[in-house]
Design goal:
The protein is built from 3 helices and 3 strands. By secondary structure, it is α+β, with helices and mostly antiparallel strands. A 3-stranded antiparallel sheet has the order 1-3-2. Helix 1 crosses helix 2. It is globular, with a radius of gyration of 15 Å. It starts with a strand and ends in a 22-residue tail after the last helix.
Length: about 70
């Protein structure tokens, strides 16, 4: 059985939190990595039990200018 792993960025999006928050949890040892990627099963277990101290990540604005301005 292969353990599912994904990038910190993908895992943050999946959980609706910021990448920096996931990175802090990895550095603190709360979320283990497998070959540099988030161990999804272990991370899900931690995320389900953690205190909710962080507000959900704000949706990012779409790339490109909506007002038609050139970049």
């Amino acid at each position: 059985v292969m353990t599912e792993a994904m990038s910190q960025n993908a895992y943050a999006k999946r959980c609706g939190v910021s990448v920096s928050y996931i990175n802090q949890l990895v550095k603190a040892g709360s979320i283990p990595l497998l070959a540099g990627k988030v161990d999804v099963a272990a991370a899900d277990e931690f995320m389900a039990s953690r205190p909710r101290t962080e507000a959900p990540a704000k949706p990012k604005k779409a790339k490109g200018k909506l007002d038609g301005a050139q970049e």
